[in-house]
Amino acid sequence: MEKQIQKILNDLYQLDPKLRNKEWDLTKIICELIELKPQAEIDPNFENWLKQELIKKISYLSNNNKFNFMKKFFYPAFSLAVVVLAIFVFSLFNQNRHLAINLNPEVKIIPTKDMAFNLSTSQTVPEANQNSEAVGLGGGGGLAILDRGEMITKSEVYQPVNYRFIYQGEDFSIEDEQLPVLKRIKNQDAVSKLGNILSKVDLGILNFSKLINPRIQTLNIIEDRDFGYSIYLDLMNEMVSMNQNWERWQTEQTMLCQQNPDQCQETKSLTENDLPSDEVLIEIASAFLQKYQINMSSYGKPFIDNQWKTYYKRLPEGGESYLPDIISIIYPLTIDGQEVYDQEGTGYGLNISVNIRENKVIGLWGLATRNYQSSLYATEKKENILAAAEKGGFQPYFSDASGETVEIGLDTPQKGLVVITNYINGMNEEIIAPCLLFPIKEIPQGHDYWRKGIIVPLIKDLMPKYDFNYPEPMQVILDVE
Amino acid sequence: MDISEKEIIQECQTGNLEKFSLIYDKYAKKIYQFIYYRVFYRETAEDLTSQTFFKALEKINTFNFKKNGSVSAWLYCIARNSVIDYTRVNKKEIPLEEAKEEKSFDRIEEKIDRAQKIKQVENCLKILNYKQREIVIMRVWQEMSYQEISQILGKSEASCKMAFSRGIGKIRENLGDLLLLLVLFVYFK
Questions:
Q1: CB-based contacts of A480: which residues, under 8 Å, 6+ apart?
Q2: What is the pTM of this model?
Q3: Mind listing the pLDDT tens digit for each residue in A397-438?
Q4: In sequence order, what DSSP letters do the residues of B40-83 get, joined into one string?
Q5: Do B21 and A53 touch (CB under 8 A)?
Q6: What's the sign of the alpha-carbon dihedral A376, A381, A385, A387?
Q7: Residues of B with CB below 8 A from A108's CB?
Q8: For tag attachment on chain B, is the N or C end more exposed, with fewer CB atoms within 10 Å?
Q9: pLDDT class for B88, splitting at 50, 70, 90?
Q10: Nearest chain A Cα to B173, which residue?
């Protein structure tokens, strides 16, 4: 404070050197003025709120300059939806209204200050296997593995195995002291704008104009045609999914089932010869994406989710087996050229399910806006990352003394991004963080392993916290036959 | 901030508006304080802070370093104009007593202290004209240089220095004895 006062006094003396004679008075006045300075701390809640509002506006302005509502959302995504919604809007409001809504699937990243997100709820993972299907704790999943509960043969009953991960790759280093973490943001532009339009509608049975601050959270559109789709728009979360419109999805099998339920149950199991090649499956998915003009600019090279093969291989020769009817094709989200993985090391992004009996796409999910805030966080030390990789990363494995120990070699890691769902205040937040993927290098003969690699986040605040007190699986489950 | 303000402005002006958030991060607190010291009312300061940044975002394409000086001077100008517009519409200056509504969870003694302090601020500032008051606030409370003050007010540095000197002189003439007592009270209580 003394420095500040002296600076002010010097300025005053420069103007009128005689003021030096009044220095005592002036010092007291300036001192008192400084003492009187009111507290004017900005409320952090307000500061954050205003930032979010500005981001919404930025997002709107950025997109509105280049695209309008139709081009930006419905037209590239769903030409079908354009027609339906345009008719909906036109017929309801009978006006040629330009409605700009920002639901752009392209990746946009807005930087913010360091360590801006609440990552405190990052998961505590048990020092245990979470591949719960193997120990009969439920889970497993994906569209590719269908209703296996009734088909499990005796040979499939869990045999305890300890997986031990050993790093066998080359030396590597963590070069960056800080790296950006991304948090997905939603501007909910469509929620309010469509809500505002709705507020002009009187349905007779209900007058929407009487609603206070109406918002449209979801919208369901169907294609009213044979083998049409039902399109579900989750406007709150800015996500789109598509599924069969069951009312108009009549296959030979479903018609047979309706006419003669007994014959329906005798549907012939698929054999390996019935499986289309990966190329054919990708061709079917690509044709679908092209037909509906789905904007794929944020997604990388597709791959087939072959997890089901791990389980299929376990079956003994001549054992009762079923191949899945439905196979998933994944188009991984890519950000700045880096692929995004889920915590098991599988590509995360847009999923398309193909029914291989009909060679038709039956579902799409994971299409979403990709607006993110970016904030820098400190990276973890190499030795801690290696230790976490050898524990199994995000998905460690139970140690079971009675089981056989299988050593799995881990190769030199490659950089990528991992998606983490952070549950805060009753809401799920999508966090995307830089990570290392340690590819599975070696699996002993006669064994298999469902993951392609072990994922470890590079960010200190996101490192898995292992819970050593996690209970062992109950013996009763292990003994089931 | 890793990139310079010049680069941020260039990015924004070529369509990469996302970079505007870096400007916000840097200036949000300062602009809020600048406004608060003029309105002394939290909600009004928040409203005017919002207006300032939205106006800045909308007008970012018109920003020119030659014309507007620095980003900070430009933002303060927008903030100052927002305050002036607000006071014009409301046709009065905001009574300082309204500042008493701050955080309701404060203890009663703190409320009384604040009320007394605000009264002192009022006594001190009301004898200054608007320009002098602005300069005293910017110089003493916000510790701005005369260069910054002159850019914001669109006056010469010399004129700002003179106005400040006259303002201090006015306070000395009018409140010298009172302030002396207050200072003694503050230091010996």
A1: A136, A157
A2: 0.57
A3: 655 666 778 888 999 999 999 999 887 777 788 999 999 999
A4: --HHHHHHHHHHHHHHHHHTGGG--HHHH-SHHHHHHHHHHHHH
A5: no
A6: negative
A7: 18
A8: C
A9: confident
A10: A25
Q: Which residues on chain B are in Cβ contact (under 8 Å) with A50? A: 24, 28, 46, 49-50, 53
Residue A304 is predicted with a pLDDT of 93
Chain B hits for A37, CB-CB cut-off 8 Å, are: 140-141
A5 touches chain B (CB under 8 A): no
Question: Alpha-carbon distance A403 to A163, whole Å?
Answer: 10
Total residue count of chain A as it appears in this document: 481
Q: What is the pLDDT averaged over residues A334-342?
A: 93
Domain boundaries along the sequence of chain A:
1-13+21-40, 124-186+269-478
ipTM of this predicted structure: 0.80
- Of A297-301, A394-398, A448-452, A468-472, the range with the highest mean pLDDT is A297-301
Considering only alpha carbons, which residue of chain A is nearest residue B53? A54
Q: What share of chain A is helix, strand, coil (3-state, %, to 5)?
A: 35, 25, 40
pLDDT value of residue A148: 37
Distance, in Å, from the CA atom of B56 to the CA atom of B17, rounded to the nearest integer, reads 11
What residue type is assigned to position B132 of the chain?
Q
Q: In this structure, what token pair is assigned to residue A344? A: 């098991």
Listed in order, strand segments (DSSP E) in A209-348 are: 218-222, 229-234, 239-244, 303-304, 326-332, 334-335, 338-341
Q: Which domains does chain B have, with CATH numbers?
A: 1-94 (1.10.1740.10), 127-189 (1.10.10.10)
Pairing mode, if any, of strands A414-424 and A338-341? parallel
Does B124 sit within 8 Å of A15, measured CB to CB?
no
